[in-house]
Amino acid sequence: MANYPDLGLFIGGTWRQTAETIPVLNPADSTVIGQVPRAGIADLDDAVEAARKGLAIWRATPPERRMQIMLRASALLRERIEGVATVMTLEQGKPIEQSRSEVRRACDIIEWDANEGRRIYGRQIPAEPGMIHLALREPIGVVAAFSPWNFPVSSPARKVAGALASGCAIILKAAEETPASAVALVRAFEDAGLPAGVVNLVFGIPAEISEYLITHPAVRLVTFTGSIPVGKTLAALAGRHMKPAIMELGGHGPAIVCDDVDVDHVARISAVAKSRNAGQVCVAPTRFFVQDRIHDRFVDVFARHAGAMRMGNGLDLDVDLGPLANTRRVDAMETLVADAVARGARVVTGGARHGNVGNFYPMTVLTDLPPDARCMVEEPFGPLALICRYSTIEEALEQANSLPFGLAAYGFSDDADRVAAMVANLECGNLSINHYVASVAETPFGGVKESGYGREGGVEGLQCYTTVKNVSHLTRSAKIGAMNGVG
Length: 487
What we know:
This protein is α/β, with parallel strands linked by helices. It folds into two domains: 9-249 and 447-470, Aldehyde Dehydrogenase, Chain A, domain 1 (3-Layer(aba) Sandwich), CATH 3.40.605; 253-433, Aldehyde Dehydrogenase, Chain A, domain 2, CATH 3.40.309. It is 41% helix and 21% strand. The chain has helices at residues 41-59, 63-79, 81-92, 96-116, 154-165, 179-191, 206-215, 228-240, 263-275, 292-307, 327-342, 374-377, 393-400, 416-425, 458-463, 476-483, and strands at residues 9-11, 14-16, 21-25, 32-37, 123-125, 131-139, 142-146, 169-173, 199-202, 219-225, 245-248, 253-257, 285-291, 346-349, 364-367, 384-390, 408-412, 430-433, 452-453, 466-474. A seven-stranded mixed β-sheet has the order 14-15-16-13-12-17-18, sandwiched between helices. The chain has a six-stranded mixed β-sheet with strand order 9-8-7-10-11-19, with helices on both faces. Helix 9 links the parallel strand 12 (253-257) and strand 13. The protein starts with 8 loop residues before the first strand and ends with a helix.
């Protein structure tokens, strides 16, 4: 078994321990593998003060130098990929190759943001002679960031990279269930020469930390990735204190499959996409709307591939599906499947917890689902694939848009008119046609409706970490001209 690293808070460029800790569990066997320190009010006071001092240094650092430090951090993370990926699998459960891919994705994000940080341009607005109007983009200030357990390196990397590329300082509250992954990310920035206080890392009781940081006068932006109920609570708290927020919340991704596609191919890649991170992905395809003519074939192929997936410890190289991250997710799967079956749904494969050790639940395919089944209206956030049939593209679009979620959606068709209908009518922040990649480093990522607001990634993401200052300058030449009767 690989060694699990020591954990700490990172405040003002120094690692520290606390008297109170929270156990970290391995989801493959439920054993305690570490203890994460719990930040108290004094630690949070220190983190805010460190971030204020770090901000003064970092916003005055030339963009070229900021870029160099960020690129060095990414290079160090790439060099450490095996160790970081192993730790991630230990504490989160996903198969090791998926952990490696996540680290590489985090590096891509850091590198893109680092380079784009040199191009956060303002603009000059035309005016009468002697008057200059400038719209300047400036760092918004100290950022309070809250990241989830399902992507414990790439999600914090989005927030840290966006803040740093824009000239901000950040206090990252990472997930207590997957702390070592965040520690590895922050260590890379520390070893790259990032000035003290620019990045700070804390763990503890989420409600206590969010209440403290969001209401603190020094904090100017809140960014959160997580569930819709928690997001609404944090957004309301930020709103009461006039803090802008980036809310990347849950989804219930629809995938519309038209009958002109290669059904076997789409069913295979759909099963793989749904299984990624055991379905614990906010952009996971979950509601598959498949046209009548190919529905039964799609179900058969999807279920065959889903049923053949090998479950086990994510460190084993032949494993396709690791454990769910915690017992809460297993309980949720059991509850949702039982409800669906009671309402008339059919289980094609899976549908029951696997074994008595660890948090294992197989890929589960349900069909004949009534629209009021809980899994059809609540985000499952697990390995449940819900396959429904439809007749017309209009019917599919209506079903896809029927929920208050709007994060990611997917469409499969080679017919230009059907694709155009999906592009024009699907209510989502991210739409992928004929593939399952919701976003990359250079594209904006975020939701609509209850899936949130604000963006991470791309130029739009960096702009969320800035504020605009309008400067109007009446020049001396204009004053002289006016005195001389010119103009």
